[in-house]
Amino acid sequence: MAFACSLALASDPSPLQDFCVAVKDIKDGVFVNGKFCKDPKLAVADDFFFSGLNKAGNTSNPYGLSVTPNPDYRLFSKILNPGDVFVFPMGLIHFQFNIGKSEAVAFGGLSSQNAGVIAIASAVFGSKPATNPDVLAKAFQLDKDVVKYHQSRF
Ligand SMILES: *[C@@H]1O[C@H](CO)[C@@H](O)[C@H](O)[C@H]1NC(C)=O
Known about the structure:
single chain, little secondary structure, two-stranded antiparallel sheet, 15% helix, extended, binds 2-acetamido-2-deoxy-beta-D-glucopyranose, disulfide bond
């Protein structure tokens, strides 16, 4: 009896290590594949445990939500010249803007076969069906008419 099986997997490459428990101070960590991690031999069950998801967070803020921001919304910017390269870490929001007086050509290389590129403005204001303007007004702290104007542009 002949048995044939064909399997195709489409995903990003697996991490190079099983886990990386973050450390607050790099002197407490080991450098593993470009990251400071707790020495894996010292990992304990509590490193993978959190309790409290059943407790409401503090939503007394303009967005009406409670999140632990991570990372810290810092803008990294750099003026590039011919021949320069800039790497955008996977999943990070990024933009390119030509500040020169002539046309510019840029090559983009993505690390995934299925990169899932999303243009943020189109995704937010141009979704089909449209996102409820009340949601966008709250999320972006905009007047609802401003949201409707942006939605009408797509
Ligand atoms: C909730 O957050 C608001 C705004 O930051 C703050 O003034 C208030 O004290 C917080 N309430 C609690 C119970 O932590």
